[in-house]
Amino acid sequence: MINPHEITRHVYWNIPLIFKILVYVGGLGVIALAAWAVYQRIQIWKKGREEDRKDNLKERLIFAAKNVFFHTRILKDQYPGIMHLAIFWGFLVLLIGTILVAIEADVPFVHFYYGVFYLLVSLALDIAGLVLIIGICMALYRRLKEKPDRLQPEKAEDNLILYLLLAVAVTGFLTEAVRIAAQGFPKFELYSIVGFILAIPLNIVGINGTLAHRFFWFIHMVCSFAFIAYIGYSKLLHIVVTPASIVFRDRRSYGVVDPIPDMEEAESFGLTKIEELSWKQLMDLDACMRCGRCQEACPAHSTDKPLSPKNLIQDLKEHMNDRLAKGKDPEECTPYQKISDDVLWACTTCAACMEECPAYIEHIDKIVEMRRYLSLMEGRIPEELNQTFRNMENNYNPWGVGFANRADWAEGLDIPLLSEKGSAEYLLWVGCAGAYDDRYKKVMRALVEILKAANIDFAILGTEEKCCGDWARRLGNEYI
Asked: At what angle do helices 279-287 and 309-320 cross, to 10 degrees?
């Protein structure tokens, strides 16, 4: 019977001392490089205004954990969802395995990487590596063959990241396979199932020596270090930022628009410079990985309007880098140089983009802030909106229908007016659509029949009711 302590492998088998030293120096170097890049991004976010997003922190963390580890939102789109889940879990298991191996190799008096534990970890790591490769191949097929519109335009880093991660996984298996062949195919290494199978053809063609092992090991380490270093300087940053964005998401209903604080005392309105966004809004710009789900869900984009929520976020990110990272003059560098008025006015604020975004990026508040600047500071409003605003001011509804007709929809329903009744348990707010739009009039009349059948004590304001103004707020004209 084999001694359990013999069922193991030497972590640095066949690796010269100089290579081991390079691993430690290089590893610390690339980790420091990645950490420095993340730190620099945090410093940029901190230039935004303060915003409290730390309420109910326990609930926030639980919600983020479910989304990150189980991909609850990403899996709504099946193929890319499964693809990303495979890459995520394959990478995560391999990362955990690497940490365990590092502890075994570098922590004095700690020895656990042998026996049944070694066999189970070896099996788990090989399966994870295979799952990772499958996920990467699915991603490459989608980008190189299918080329969905929502992923366009692509950047060079998109495929580079996939090739780099694929190189890490493949060279890891090659290193393992050559080691198994060079050690004479120990039976317990059958648990390293992928490496063991790969070792057979490599052994047949003569790739089974210590030199080949060192070569593949060296390439594997170079690719791994390059991947780590690249995290802070590419969209791989979403590995860190997206979970944080989910934790600090707005917990209210999607698309809620806050009023302008202290409006009567404000000296400027809307987004005049990028640092007027909150730190969370700036973080959003780094959380975007350009998956295009928001663009695909956007009704404005689907009807050939100039708006793409994805491109809007990317344009704001580019401006943030120009202004806050490169320090360009705010007078010469404004977000409106990159984002046209037509893009901003095309948004319906339906929040479909926010409903789909796996990073829980908040698009609408940014658009509304920019609309406020166009409306209240520049007066750059489409002519049709000017007429709508005049209708609001004159007749208290966007269509310009006489305000004296606001209660005509209720004719024959015998609905009490609050001014006549004095009090009621519930006030039925009809709204402009319910009062004037022919389709919504039918909805409102049906609702009244239901309330009466349920013996609900309610009343309406009638002609005393005015427009709530929510649509004007969403269009940026808070003054109305």
From this structure: 110
For residue 459, the 8-state DSSP code is: E
Helical segments of 107-188, H only: 115-141, 156-182
Question: Distance (Å, rounded) from C-alpha 242 to C-alpha 36?
Answer: 18
* pLDDT, mean of residues 69-84: 97
Residue 1 predicted with pLDDT over 70: no
Residue with the two structure tokens 């604080």: 261
Q: Which amino acid is at 284?
A: D
User: What are the tens digits of pLDDT across the range 444-459?
Assistant: 999 999 999 999 999 9
Percent pLDDT > 90 in the chain is 95
What DSSP state is assigned to residue 49? B
Mean of per-residue pLDDT scores for the chain: 95
Residue spans of the domains in the chain: they are: 4-247, 263-380, 399-474
Q: Is 242 exposed, middle or buried (0-12, 13-18, 19+ CB in 10 A)?
A: buried
Q: Which amino acid is at 310?
A: K
- Give the separation between CA 129 and CA 87, rounded to whole angstroms: 9
pLDDT at 480 over 90: no
Residues 472 and 366 sit within 8 Å (Cβ to Cβ): no
Give residue for tokens 């901003």: 344
pTM of the model: 0.92
Query: 461 CB contacts (<8 Å, ≥6 apart)?
Result: 417, 418, 419, 427, 429, 430
Question: Integer distance in angstroms from the first to the last C-alpha of the chain?
Answer: 86
Q: Cis bond leading into 4, ω under 30°?
A: no
**Residue 426 backbone dihedrals phi, psi, to 5 degrees:** -130, 140
* CA-based max dimension of the chain: 98
Closest listed residue to residue 354, CA positions, set 450, 253, 436, 234: 253
> Tens of pLDDT along 459-472?
999 999 999 999 99
Asked whether 7 and 188 are in contact (CB, 8 A), the reply is: yes
Superfamily of domain 263-380: Alpha-helical ferredoxin (1.10.1060.10)
Cα 288 versus chain centre, distance: 5
CA distance 48 to 277: 5
Say how far apart CA 343 and CA 308 lie, in whole Å: 8
Name the CATH architecture for the domain at 4-247: Up-down Bundle (1.20)
Do residues 33 and 229 lie in contact, with contact meaning Cβ atoms separated by under 8 Å?
A: yes
- CA-CA distance, 241 to 44, in Å (whole number)? 13
Token look-up 């001014």 returns 419
Distance CA 418, CA 461 (A): 6
What are residue 427's DSSP bridge partners?
A: 459
- Dihedral sign, Cα of residue 249, residue 253, residue 254, residue 256: negative
Mean pLDDT value of segment 325-342: 92
Q: What angle do CA 137, 301, 347 make, to 5 degrees?
A: 130
